[in-house]
Specification:
With 228 residues, the protein is mainly α. Helix content is 83%, strand content 0%. The C terminus is likely disordered.
């Protein structure tokens, strides 16, 4: 009972509960992407090397923009940045679903979508971490972060199974010029878009006070020290 008390105390807080559930949905959406996107590239190109290069195209910009994302979170509202990232990922999920359903073979469009998705992800995660101190107390911060991280790790087990099962269930359906497997992949991207959309709605329902940019807060603190 004592062990579960901090968890109950956290989820009883509206803002944290909304952020946590939104994080669960986003993490599952990311796992769907990790399964469906390489599958789609393989269907389009039939080339394992292309799968690797497209995935790399989305990963390399993310490494760079992760640093930029962290800097922007210090200057602007992490709540706003999370929303913007989620909206971008909803749009990308819809575009990828349409790409799969249409049976398109434009591999360069896949490269572009991979890069944009990597950039959107690189803004989401620093903002998610930065918003926690705004909605929980300092004493609760460690436990709050642990719960979020544990959820992300658990999604790595559940998400791929759900995505693979969905592709298998719908993979035997034929659509226009697309292959049967492409329909299953398109369905997976549809679920991905839905999870990010629900995550966006939940984040929008949070009531978070506007945090002052780090530079402005530091300037005010310096001014107070000078006056004292």
């Amino acid at each position: 009972t004592t062990t579960n008390a901090p968890f109950r105390a956290l989820v009883e807080q509206r803002n944290y509960r909304l952020l946590w559930v939104a994080g669960v949905l986003s993490a599952i959406g990311d796992q769907f992407d990790m399964v469906a996107f390489p599958w789609l590239v393989l269907l389009v190109t039939n080339d394992p090397l292309a799968v690797g290069t497209v995935i790399a195209a989305g990963t390399l910009p993310a490494v760079f923009f992760m640093l930029v994302g962290g800097s922007l979170v210090d200057r602007f509202s992490p709540h706003f940045i999370i929303q913007g990232s989620n909206v971008a990922r909803v749009v990308l999920g819809v575009l990828l679903a349409l790409f799969a359903f249409s049976g398109s073979s434009n591999v360069w469009l896949l490269y572009l979508l991979a890069v944009v998705k990597g950039i959107a992800d690189s803004f989401y995660y620093p903002a998610q971490a930065a918003i926690l101190p705004s909605i929980v107390s300092k004493d609760e911060l460690r436990q709050a972060n642990t719960i979020v991280q544990t959820t992300v790790e658990m999604s790595g087990f559940v998400g791929p199974m759900l995505a693979g099962g969905l592709i298998a269930i719908f993979g035997d359906r034929q659509i226009d010029s697309g292959s049967p497997d492409a329909f299953g992949v398109g369905a997976a991207f549809g679920v991905l878009a839905a999870t990010f959309l629900l995550s966006t709605i939940l984040i929008a329902l949070m009531r978070v006070e506007q945090r002052k940019p780090a530079a402005e807060a530091a300037a005010e603190l310096s001014s107070e020290d000078t006056q004292s």
